[in-house]
Amino acid sequence: MSGPRQPGRWSLRRRLGLGLAGAMAALWLAAATVAGLVLQHEIGEVFDSALQEVAQRVLPLAYSELLSREAGDTPQHMAPIGPHREYITYVVRDGAGRVLLQSSDAELMAIPAGLAPGFHSTDRLRTYTEAAVSGTIVVTTAEDLGHRAAAVRRAVAALIWPLGALVPIALAGVWLSVRLSLKPVLAFRRAIEARGHGNLTPVATAGLPEEVAPVAAAVNALLDRLRGALDAERGFTANSAHELRTPIAAALAQTQRLMVELPEGPEQDRAHAIAGALRRLSRLSEKLLQLAKAEGGGLVAEVPAPLAPVLRHVVSDIDRQTGRGTDIALSIPANGGPLSDLDPDAFAILARNLIENALKHGKPETPVEVRLDDGLFEVANCGPVVPADVLAGLVRPFQRGPTGAEGSGLGLAIAAAICRGAGLTLDLASPIPGAADGFRATVRFPAAPRS
């Protein structure tokens, strides 16, 4: 899984999703605006045609009415047939402007008189005037412009309201499409994230889009170069260890032979001092090489392996060299202990340094408790309490606590370097929780082996 998004970072999926959905919404609004303008023009033409048609149909009726009426008759109102809303009204006038005939709502419309034939617009009305019989009969039809505007608004609203449903659907569709399209890229990202802590296996490039495939090839080339550099470093470390151990061992053997051949006296004492110095040099060179390995990488194996056999071998080797195997209380689960992708050699160095540190600084009469369990490796010993300010510095090279035992001050630094490089956690506690004294080092493994 990826970690939390860092400040200043942006998501390609989110940007594509919001950008495409926003572009669709903007295009829809633009299309609705253009459609509204076209509708406004078309609706205007339709209603103008209706005004003209009403005027032309009313004109013959008005002429018949004029012939049949008697002088002095009052204007006739055309009664509505049933309740209805009259959108187009009309009024018929004679040449002098007197009203002869009008629709039921004509008075409410206040249609102006004296209009020339044709279309006219006022602030609130759209009119059409038609004249006949040499201008003695004038028919004017009128429509409220608010009715036209309302019709346009309703038509445009019918185009726009689906946008409220379209935007969430578009967001979901775009998000799903982008997610499916970027799925190989996300798998590539997770594969790169899994290549931390020395795991330098090539990243799978199958299924990657052509825009990302060159990046994957460059990453694999870089991993290959890093793997070559780490292999060269491991080879140098191994060769250096061999080259250092051989002359030191030879010098120590010659010194020990000289100790036997020399008579008791100052010369033999100096030979003993030289032998002690060579032993310390041998241990120091071994610790320095272990520290170089811990800080140099290559601490993660490609395939997870059990740690219990490695721990048993380390305890057996310590017993063979020091004879203190009986001072170690080893606890390993019956199921054989956890699997881990920590390199077996790195775990052997880690366990050996923690156990030797506990044997060296613990009380001789109490055993060192070594426990390997799912998720942790723990080493605890009885001994004086290490002050909190000193405890935090013990993971630095050549830092030692208040003890008279011999040592180089590198054991905990090596263990801490291995834990950092392998993605583990090292916790130091003194006194042991629930006890009055003692020292405990706990290494916590990830919940599951990394693949």
TrEMBL record:
Catalysed reaction equations from the record = ATP + protein L-histidine = ADP + protein N-phospho-L-histidine
Question: Where does the chain cross the membrane?
Answer: 159-182
- UniProt keyword Cell inner membrane present: no
Task: Using the record's annotation, list all stretches that form the HAMP domain.
Answer: 179-231
Give the enzyme's main class according to its UniProt record, as a single word: transferase
Q: Which residues form the signal peptide?
A: none
Q: Which UniProt keywords apply?
A: ATP-binding, Kinase, Membrane, Nucleotide-binding, Phosphoprotein, Transferase, Transmembrane, Transmembrane helix, Two-component regulatory system
Its membrane topology, per UniProt? Multi-pass membrane protein
Q: Which GO terms describe its molecular function?
A: ATP binding; phosphorelay sensor kinase activity
Name a Pfam family for this protein: HisKA
Q: Name one GO cellular component term.
A: plasma membrane
Location relative to the cell: Membrane
What EC number(s) would the UniProt record show?
2.7.13.3
The record's section on InterPro entries has: HAMP_dom, HATPase_C_sf, HATPase_dom, His_kinase_dom, HisK_dim/P_dom, HisK_dim/P_sf, TCS_sensor_his_kinase
Keyword Magnesium included in the entry's annotation: no
Where would I find the Histidine kinase domain in this sequence? 239-449
Q: What is this protein called?
A: histidine kinase
